[in-house]
Design brief:
two-stranded antiparallel sheet, mainly alpha, 103 residues, single chain
Amino acid sequence: MNFETLVTLLIVGVVVATIIRLFAGWSLASWLLTFVLAVLGGVGGWQLERQLHLPSLYAFPFPTDQVGVSVVWTSVGALVLALIGALLARPSQRQPARSSRLR
């Protein structure tokens, strides 16, 4: 993995984490967890594409890398893990306090 690949994976992770957090509820801790999971999912999608020889649907070609980074497979991997993280790190909904008086 070279520098351009790492930067591409981080950018995809930021975009995916931000989009998912906009729909699932926003807090900094949950965004950071979703970001980490999105980057890990992006790396997994990128590795799966290389291992299974999937077609590069939309790739950024870099001069130092002959193949480039496929944004589609990276985004799919990032979305899958980030959605799992969004479900696990959903902000809690406050319940109204119950009255302690008996009626």
